[in-house]
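Hey, I'm writing a tutorial for new members on how sequence and structure tokens pair up, and I'd like a real worked example in the thread rather than a made-up one. If someone can provide the structure for the chain below, I'll link this post from the tutorial.
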Amino acid sequence: MSTDSASSDSELEDRVVNFLRRNFPQIQMHGGNAAIQHLDPETGEVHIQLGGACSGCGISPMTIQAIKSRMVKEIPEIEEVKADTGDGAEPDMGETEGMSPSFPGDGGDESSDEGPQAPF
């Protein structure tokens, strides 16, 4: 690899990192993180791994979709973005990946119908 291509690869990686910091500060503000797992400047493919509080977060599928759609528009060298939370397959929008909501009175132990007690 030549020095020129190494510096341009590094420049592209810096642009991806800056894109994530600039467009998605809420990832860090909410205790999550985003890391480049793989970047191939020749094919224009990048794989982003969301971690920390992003794993299991209900809105991480929306964050992933936003990253995918914005990055290819903002960084012309990037043609394909793969992103996930590292906790299995990426859920479709609206899926809760193995989680199901539960509500008071929705089956289960009848004595726990009340939900949590207020501290006062």
